[in-house]
Write a structure and sequence with these properties.
Layout (H helix, E strand, L loop, with lengths): L1 H38 L3 E3 L2 E5 L4 E12 L5 E13 L2 E8 L3 E6 L2 E8 L2 E6 L7 E8 L1 E6 L4 E4 L2 E7 L6 E13 L11 E11 L15 E13 L2 E11 L5 E10 L6 H5 L8 H11 L6 E8 L2 E4 L2 E5 L7
Antiparallel strand pairs: 1-3, 2-3, 3-4, 4-5, 4-6, 5-8, 6-7, 7-10, 8-9, 9-12, 10-11, 11-13, 12-13, 13-14, 14-15, 15-16, 16-17, 17-18, 18-19, 19-20
């Protein structure tokens, strides 16, 4: 019995020693990673950065966190961030995020509020830590911009994983329940929208520990496998393929199918997408183009930096790039 006790105590001491050695290695790795990012122009500031979780986990807690890209175009701020990983599986991390964060993109400042926002992230147990899987979810969220627009939603799920065997290709999934725009749109349905989307994105290089240094990977192609918006009798579905040039300019066609559109076509003018004076003409044209079942099928064409929905020009096409 005495020998057994000695063996158990020795094993516990060895495990504790191994945990503390690994914890020191984690601290060193965090500091080395921050230093490497800052050497390439990134700014990463925290009021405190601590590790814990003995004996079964490796926990990291950061407070007053600010992360800014090298060109200053993206700045993310959060009052705190917590991550946890099991000591026997450190390549799978669970992150818990605060109920309020801010994200500045260019000159636009956005405030994100969320309940139950958390994410799980895993990488391969390899030298380059190749991306394996990301799942993020929230019970509710809202996003408000200092330019005046806002949007709020209920339960939200976002997923991303490699899409083999193609190289540098990843498939994503998004589901947002009870989505409500924060705009005054008289023609908008009273009920919130339900949104689902599946897409495949191809990058110019893999997602691994070198992906963000010295710059973010570029998107070279985007395939919208399916996207559906069900909004109080108005149903929109879309699918198509886009090629993206090095400047983030997309080229291609997305096919949009709308049902229940007649009662909601005024949304285009109310949202400022088309002049109000063209609405009647547009309604007549859409009626002639609709199928026997009333469904309206239109190409969303992106070319030469602009986009158009059927015959209606919508202005400059959005740039497509990783945040």
């Amino acid at each position: 019995m005495k020998l057994l006790l000695i063996i158990v105590l020795s094993a516990a001491a060895l495990y504790a020693g191994a945990w503390f050695v690994a914890s020191r290695g984690l601290n060193h790795g965090l500091q080395t990673g921050i230093a490497a990012a800052e050497a390439r122009g990134w700014q990463i500031d925290t009021a405190s950065l601590t590790t814990g979780g003995f004996p079964s986990r490796f926990d990291v807690h950061a407070t007053d966190l600010t992360v800014a890209s090298a060109d200053g175009s993206i700045v993310w701020q959060a009052p705190w961030l917590e991550t946890a990983a099991l000591s026997y599986r450190p390549n799978k991390v669970i992150a818990v995020l605060p109920p309020q964060q801010t994200l500045q993109v260019g000159r636009q400042l956005m405030t994100l509020k969320a309940e139950g926002l958390r994410a799980s992230f895993s990488v391969a147990a390899s030298r380059l830590l190749d991306f394996d899987r990301l799942t993020a979810e929230a019970q509710s969220l809202s996003l408000a911009s200092d330019t005046g627009w806002s949007v709020a939603g209920g339960a939200t799920v976002l997923g991303l994983r490699p899409h083999g065997p193609a190289a540098n290709t990843y498939e994503g999934y998004l589901k947002i329940a009870d989505l409500r725009p924060g705009l005054s749109l008289p023609s908008a349905p009273a009920a919130p929208a339900q949104v689902t989307a599946d897409a495949t994105v191809t990058l110019d290089r893999p997602l691994d520990r070198m992906a963000l240094l010295p710059e973010r990977p570029a998107i070279t192609a985007l395939a919208l496998d399916t996207m559906t918006v069900d909004w109080g009798g108005l149903t929109l579905s879309a699918s198509g393929d886009l090629a993206v040039d090095p400047a983030g300019v997309p080229t291609g066609t997305i096919t949009v199918v709308a049902t229940g559109w007649r009662d909601r076509i005024g949304l285009l003018a109310e949202a400022g997408l088309v002049p109000a004076g063209l609405l009647q003409t547009l309604t007549s044209m859409a009626g002639m183009m609709a199928g026997a079942d009333g469904a309206l099928t239109l190409p969303l064409t992106l070319a030469n930096g602009n986009m158009a929905l059927g015959p209606v020009p919508l202005g400059p096409a959005p740039r497509i790039a990783l945040p």
